[in-house]
Design goal:
With 260 residues, the protein is mainly alpha-helical. Helix content is 70%, strand content 2%. The protein is globular and about 55 Å long. Keywords: Lipid biosynthesis, Lipid metabolism, Membrane, Phospholipid biosynthesis, Phospholipid metabolism, Transferase, Transmembrane, Transmembrane helix.
Length: 260
């Protein structure tokens, strides 16, 4: 009987289609941002990065809702984030503004592309650190500025300046500072609220003031999206150092009071 038994061929492990389609779409938006910036379409490039952020926020939720979470999806999402929130913002900022530093001499030209590379490298380091600390750190907080938030600060700045027809070449030194500061904040130890503990489920209830706050944010956003995004994400960028340093100072005061 054993000779007549059918031989089972090994099954190849597949991947879940739906969440990875969202991840692929996010990476496509980031790649399009790079192509658009090369062609000088910087507003389109900035918007494409925000589209990537929106899609990036959806792929994980889709995977959890449909029960299609996988280790492949986690790793693929990280690679997509590196393209969309690391390489894309750094190259958009370089093509829009940092490349103009070479007009001040060859040394400044090198500083320009080095700053763009620093931003991309910090985004990669931030993603690698996050992947190794998923099961260790407090989920309510991020350690360091999240790469999508960092990209949002930079791209909302580019979008705002483009809307008011301010050439990036005139802001090359300001862009240099923004790229370096945002990059270093991504690999810092400052704590940023992750918003993962907010009530988002179907049965979760929120105070009425939350709805009112949402309306107060939505109305200005519809009137002037780039500037509202820039203000909101800049405040979030500043919240990390402020909250962390405030917490450390409060801890020192409590420690001094506890001493006899």
């Amino acid at each position: 009987m054993s000779e007549n038994a059918p031989v089972r061929t090994p099954r190849h492990r597949g991947i879940y289609l739906l969440p990875n389609l969202f991840t692929t779409a996010a990476m496509f938006a980031g790649y399009y941002a790079i192509v658009a910036s090369i062609g000088g379409r910087f507003t389109e490039a900035a918007i494409a990065v925000f589209v990537a952020a929106l899609l990036d926020g959806m792929d994980g939720r889709v995977a959890r809702l449909t029960g299609t979470q996988s280790e492949f999806g986690v790793q693929y999402d990280s690679l997509s984030d590196l393209v969309s929130f690391g390489l894309a913002p750094s190259l958009v900022m370089y093509n829009w503004s940092l490349s103009a530093l070479r007009d001040f001499g060859p040394v400044w030209g090198k500083i320009g592309w080095a700053a763009a590379f620093l931003y991309a490298a910090c985004a990669a380091l931030r993603l690698a650190r996050f992947n190794t600390q998923v099961g260790v750190i407090d989920k309510r907080y991020f350690q360091g500025l999240a790469s999508p938030a960092g990209a949002a600060v930079c791209m909302s700045f580019v979008w705002s300046m483009e809307k008011f027809q301010v050439p990036g070449a005139e802001l090359c030194f300001l862009t240099l500072g923004i790229a370096v500061v945002v990059g270093l904040l991504m690999v810092s130890r400052f704590r940023y609220y992750s918003f993962k503990s907010l009530p988002m489920g179907d049965r979760d209830r929120v105070p009425f003031l939350w709805v009112l706050a949402g309306v107060l944010v939505l109305v200005p956003f519809l009137i002037d999206p780039p500037r509202v995004l820039f203000v909101v994400f800049t405040l979030y960028l500043l919240s990390g150092p402020v909250v962390t340093l405030w917490g450390r100072a409060a801890h020192r005061r409590r420690t001094r009071r506890a001493r006899p």
